[in-house]
Amino acid sequence: MASVQTIEIKIFGNSPQKFNELSIKAAFETEKIPGTAHVFDGIIIAGPSVEVAPDLSKLAQFGISPVNFQYQMQTQLAGNVVGSIPEKEQYTDIRMIYLYSDNTSVDKMRQQFIFLPYGKLKHITEFATVEVKPGTAEITRENLQPVAIVTARLNGRDLNSVMKDIQKRLGKNISLPQGYYISYGGAYADQKKSFSELLIILRTSCLLVFTLMLFLFRDYRAAFVILLIAMLGVAGGFLALYLTHTPLNVGSYT
């Protein structure tokens, strides 16, 4: 299977903010469908994060390039490779890093200094703002398109009937802006693909059986009757599934 989730509602569009809004609505409507369980709106918050926003005009005033500013910041926080030494027939990198950088904080970052080209030091707050940003939702892509994926599992109902109810409810209660559309994946998409492939096999096998019977009996009526009996057997199989309340899935269809 291509997906571990039974039900996947994929919302394609452009704006991540609109994604979140539509995902929450779709999850809310899906939870109301009988037979669904563990509905997840697909919003994964990454963060919080620390943002250092440099003032380019200030950097230019003191002759500091953005690349140099980034290099100094990285040296303070994660270190930079400044050379290497030969050791046991291989080169070992030399990393320059500030003392206690693994135990820094936002306040300590604001107290750090930036080296000017002529050797003096100035506080980082004179060149940039250091702020803590709240968590932002991760952006997922499929076929190079941004997508929000609402997932759910089944509980006491068959997949086909639940998906029909979901499609009907979302089409009625969610209005998509221009450029947005919904597709359905998960086990439902896998099942549709399998049904389509099995239908091709069924048609091909019927044609081959009809050709073989025609070759053996050299009579169109006899070949047609034999094929008709086989098709009635398939109809009886579907009737048995209906009478025993067995869902039509890939296994029962086969």
Summarize the helices and strands and which ones pair or pack.
Layout lengths: L6 E6 L3 H16 L4 E5 L4 E2 L2 E6 L1 H6 L4 H12 L2 E8 L2 E7 L9 H5 L2 E3 L5 E3 L4 E6 L2 E2 L2 E3 L2 E10 L4 H15 L7 E5 H32 L2 H24 L6 H4 L1
Antiparallel strand pairs: 1-12, 1-13, 2-12, 3-10, 4-9, 5-6, 7-8, 11-12
Helix pairs in contact: 6-7
In short:
By secondary structure, the protein is of the alpha+beta class. Helices cover 45% and strands 26% of the residues.
Q: What does this 3D model show about the protein?
A:
With 254 residues, the chain is an alpha+beta fold. It folds into three domains: 92 residues, 2-Layer Sandwich (Alpha-Beta Plaits); 86 residues, 2-Layer Sandwich (Multidrug efflux transporter AcrB TolC docking domain, DN and DC subdomains); 57 residues, no CATH class. It is 45% helix and 26% strand. It contains eight helices and 13 strands. β7 and β8 form a beta hairpin. α6 packs antiparallel against α7. It is elongated, with a radius of gyration of 32 Å. The two termini are 17 Å apart. The relative contact order is 0.19. The mean pLDDT is 86.
CATH homologous superfamily (4th level) name of the largest domain: Multidrug efflux transporter AcrB pore domain
> What top-tier CATH class of the largest domain fits best?
Alpha Beta
Q: How many distinct folded domains?
A: 3
Per CATH, which architecture of the largest domain?
2-Layer Sandwich
Shape: elongated
At the fold tier of CATH, the topology name of the largest domain is Alpha-Beta Plaits
As a percent range, the share of helical residues equals 40-55%
Radius of gyration: 32 Å
**How many E strands?**
13
Distance between the termini: 17 Å
